[in-house]
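Figure 2 data, in text form.
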Amino acid sequence: MKIIYIIFTCLLLFFQATAQNKTEEALLYKANQLYQSGNYSEAQSLYDKILATNPNNSIALFNKANALQQQKNYDAAAKQFQQAALTSNNASLKAKAYYNTGVAAIKQQQLGDAIQAFKESLLLNPNSDSARNNLQKALNEQKKNEQQQNNQQKQPKNPLNKQQADNLLNQLRQQEKELQQYEKQKIKPVNTEKDW
């Protein structure tokens, strides 16, 4: 009797898991259709439903991140792409997730994060021309920004305006007059008459 109960329980769990997978697949299909038709926020809601039951569904994470990126929510998209890359066992999906993380970072002017993400993508997919090109663009932009910062540091921080320069010049002239008067008082002609 115990064996029948155990077998029955195992079959029930199996059918429940199969039904859950079918529901998850149906939701994913519907969410993808919404995404393709441009209904990004509705697609995001369905991806959230999938992730509520299976938070490690890397495809739902990736697709939700794409929906967020289409809504210009780049910070949240980058986080979702990173989560998708960490949970996925598929190297191709990981490479795409890292690539899209880099794109989201570029949109937020976070060049360091973008460079790192593009490097991760290239490690997983060395044949990706788009990752290589975007990495090069990000490196060039970072170098340009560093050069601009160096040039700004070399320039004087507080240049004087015309009035300040005139005031400073007048102060220096006054100090020079005072110094000349002091020197005149200090140097008096010496009486060279002989007193004999």
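Caption note: The helical segments are 2-36, 40-53, 58-70, 74-87, 91-107, 111-124, 129-154, 162-186.
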